[in-house]
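A common beginner's mistake is to predict each chain separately and then try to dock the pieces by hand. The better habit, illustrated here, is to supply every component at once so that their relative placement is modeled jointly.
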Amino acid sequence: MPEKKRAVLTPSRIMIHGILVKNPVLVQVIGLCPAVAASADIFVSTVLSVIVTGLLIVCECIASLLLKKIPRRIRVVIYFIIGLVVCAYTSEFLKTGAPDLLNRVGVYLPLMAASSAVALRCENFAVKKSLRLSFLDALANGLGTSLVLMTSGLVRGLLGSGMIGDWKIFDTPPLRGLAMPFGGFIVLGFTAAFLKWFISAHLTKYDAEMAFGIKQRRKAKPAATLVQTVPAKSAAASDPAQPAAPAASAAAAQGNARASAPQRKSVASEESTAADFYERASSDDPQDTFALFDLGAFNLQEELDAILAEIEGLENAAFDGKEDDDA
Amino acid sequence: MHNLFTLIQTALYMIFVQNLVFSGGYGSSEAIRMSTKPKQFAPFAVMIAFYSTVTALLCRYLDTIGNINRMGAAAHVLIFGGVLAALYCVTVLLLHIFLHPAQKFFNMLGIAALNTMVFAVPLINRQAGFTMLQSIGTGVGSGLSFVLALFLVNIGLRRLENNRDIPPLFKGTPAMFLYVAMLSLAFSGLSGRALFA
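With all components supplied together, the output reads:
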């Protein structure tokens, strides 16, 4: 097991993960604020890229060296204070060197101090790993964020005003909407789709690990669990006095004749649905990545409701048919 | 009565017109990430509304002090950030002493307190020159606007997951970004600005 972990964390792997496969903005969905709101201009994007990379390197190195034994609830505020100091220093530096650029960055420069990218990378990686690996991770994630910020700045600047920075590239009616946050989200959406295609096409060995979602927070239940609950609820519905769980065991043990035939048919048809549902939920396939979102509670309830409704319908149909035969 | 009206008006403006998550992108990472945990909406909503309101109030109060008011932008960033950090530390300390919540609760508290949206509120108040009441209204409204964003994103994500018509390449975060873009566009429309000249 330790050898396997050591094999996973090679420098090249950390770099590829940070820049592409687990890109902080497009895959991990962290540090969106500057990418969405402030990166409508290549100069502003460049400034923010430098700041975020520097901040990540400083914070991750400090976290790896000094903060491993401090409780997490204290560490998060330390990252924030470090960020504040770095941003205030940068702000003063820009004020003297490039005041125009400082005005263009605006309120987004100090907000980098509260960036979720810094806190999450420090907590998820730096406090558990060595200084060297933490530095590489910070560099990779900084470059990954920078890549997205610069791409966004380039595309939004070019399509929004026909300019790259202060240079006019072509005359076009200005699409001011692209400079607004919704324009940023649209560009991020298409960039994420492009990155997904690129990884699927060129980095195929990372497919199994890639997850274009936030994080898998739900463990898949085996389909059998769901199948067993179906007769339990159904039996309980037929006999309201009997509690659900004992009804299930009673129905299973005694081979309840009324429940068996139609339910078996129904359960057999539902088995594939449930199995398919859980397969999707636990999928590692990058093409099916939305399954990685933690939305299972709602869908599970919907699935169960649908199954119960169908079983009740089949029971009623079978019962009505029996009555007709008797008549 | 007039004061109450001002407060409610500013809060409603922040929720529906200048929704910080959609119209400014502030705290959008947290909104998207937290929207996948519906069970934590209620405590998170209380936390974020508390932090945005109290931070706005304290920072506005500090800004009324002459010496602080005359300081430069970088000093204000440090002071407002210090207020937020101190507020978080005091809350953690009090909770640790009196309630002994689980570590998971503290993790959520950290996300609710130290994010771009809560930190942006006092900076925006200063930039816009809001009064004390307006600042409180902004704080309350920002907290509630975040909750609205959580609900809207959560509803969309559930529908996106069940949608089989989305091309495979756009499944996952690409579709989610485009969905949030549509919400953001809708809120931008409410602000009345001309989007395309």
